[in-house]
Amino acid sequence: MKRSEIKRRPLADTALASLEPEEKEYRENYGVDRLYFMVGSTGRKRWELRFKKPDGKWGWHGLGSYPDVPAKKARDKAQDAKRLNAGSVDPITRKANRKASRDAAETDTFRAADLWLEKKIEDGRAEKTLAGINGALTNDILPALGKKPLSKITRADCANLQASIEGRGAHNTAEKVRVWVAAPSYARPHGLLYCPAGLVSVNR
After folding, report:
1. Does some domain include residue 131?
2. SS3 assignment, position 118
3. In this structure, are residues 194 and 181 in contact, taking their beta carbons and an 8 Å threshold?
4. Cα–Cα distance between 81 and 93 in angstroms, integer?
5. pLDDT band at 16 (very low <50, low <70, confident <90, very high)
6. Which GO annotations describe the biological process of this protein (predicted)?
7. What are the backbone dihedrals phi and psi of residue 30, each rounded to the nearest 5 degrees, phi first?
8. Structural domain harbouring 15
9. Do residues 135 and 110 touch, judged by C-beta distance below 8 A?
10. CA distances from 6 to 9, 51, 63, 153 (A)
């Protein structure tokens, strides 16, 4: 369907699905809520909201790709963004801040591991022990859990880590890792969160 053939607005689902790409990306007014439908030259489609920023300037706020975000959901998102805007909250800034918060949360596990290892070094633990801890962090713990915020690590995650180590017959290492993974609860006084690994037992 060519956009010149659009008969009515708000755009019907059939129109959204059948709008054809053109040589250049174009933006079509959905019909309500200052909502617009973008069609890329490759056929990729997405939603954008036209909104006025707190400083009085107009901007565009992406609401997701189509058909992952259907029209009803796009309208709901537009209403949410308008409510924020009415409260002098820039939805783009809010989205960026929330992403930054998520990214920061994902560093908690690495930060907790660093803090804990630093504490062991400060405590004067034997070089052999420190080498074992560092090896477990590098080879087992952080590859399995490092990309998850501590608040999202579950007993199941820890149990899977244990099982993977036991699967290669390293039961002694698995027992040590169980204790070591629980230890980043040391992170709590530093504003980080708790890991439940200490609640996981090691099978013999």
Report:
1. yes
2. helix
3. no
4. 11
5. very high
6. DNA integration
7. -70, -35
8. 3-103
9. no
10. 8, 24, 22, 50
Question: What DSSP character marks residue 201?
Answer: P
Listed range (39-43, 133-137, 185-189) with the worst mean pLDDT = 185-189
Same domain, 98 and 140: no
Distance of CA 103 to the CA centre of its chain: 7
Predicted confidence (pLDDT) at residue 145 exceeds the cutoff of 90: no
For residue 204, tell me if it sits in a domain: no
Domain boundary among 85, 103, 121: 103
What is the average per-residue pLDDT within 166-193? 65
Are 136 and 168 in contact, with CB atoms under 8 Å apart? no
If you search the block for the tokens 């890329």, which residue do you land on?
40
| Amino acid identity at 93 | T
- Name residue 146's amino acid: G
Question: What is the structure's pLDDT at 29?
Answer: 95
pTM metric for this prediction: 0.47
Domains identified in the chain, total number: 2
Higher pLDDT, 149 or 157: 157
